[in-house]
Amino acid sequence: MSEPGSATEAADAIATTPGSFARRNVRGMRRHLRAIRVLLNTILLLALLYTVTLCKALLIPLVLAAFIGLALNPIVAGAARHGLPRWLGASVLMLVLVGGIGTGIGLLTPPALAWFHEAPRTIRSFVPKLEHITRPLDAANRATQTLVNGHPVWTRPQPVDVAVSAWDVASTAPKVLAAVLTEVLLVFFFLVYGDLLLRRLVEITPGFSQKRQAVSVVRGIQQEVSRFILTTLLINFSLGALTAGLLWLLRMPDPLLWGAVAMSANFIPYVGAIVTTGVLLLVGLAHFDDLTHALLPALCFAALTAFEGNVVTPLILGRRMRLSPIAILIWLLVWGWLWGIPGALLAVPTLTSVKLIAEHVRGWQWFAHMVQR
Question: What is the pTM (predicted TM-score) of this model?
């Protein structure tokens, strides 16, 4: 029978052998390399976020034009397959698009400006309708001030001047026109020369198998992103049209304006629907005397957008294109923080594009799996 200390001595002897020392050394080097890789990836991510924030004035028009070009590319490609040159198809499509958007803006600008200028008076008009709700809160506020200060303190709110001078409009108009013209030209050139860029990418890819893989990946990403963006545009347009028709039936003022607001805000998931519901609630309270009738537009829109978000969109886009709500909210916060409102509008198309690219890039499938519902 061996002594108790013999096993420990044998283990120590094995641990001190050259092979065991080498294995421990290799494991330590691997841990250090993993730590260095994590540190370098973190530094790279921070540098990328800083660069994206610093260059947002350049990147926002490019990203927006790229998404619009992807959405409209199937139309131009279909016309090209029927013998129409890409430049001619893109020109006709851009003329129709710019004319339609310009007509819509021309129709909606007067009522939007009227609501903007009448906002203070409108808010004051519906405040008395909420007196039976705010009266207990007001009484509690006065009682608290009496206990703390001995007597209630009342302050009269100062009027806010929201008038826009002609000089402000004149100085801002050239910048807006330059931005619109830049965006139109970028979309046009993306539509005309998008396939040429793909061919150049294939030409610089070495090897036949790599060329075939590059074409397959780029075509797949292009088709899926284009389908997602175009489908989202059609869904949001339908939601805006249904909202306008519903508000017209409920005798709301300027139903086309609020339908356009609902369509635009729906590009920001969750937040856009909440904001539109709040706006319709305020407009209903300002326009209708009956509280039930005033709440009806907001309630109907909430039901409509809930049906769209939970039934229509998942049914049309399918499970593969559905994203996790947590991933969407985090992505909205990040891009809203980096780029403001344009970042919030572009957040979901960007996340969808990154997810589709990650599915085709080796080593990044984990990201696509994490953001998918």
Answer: 0.71
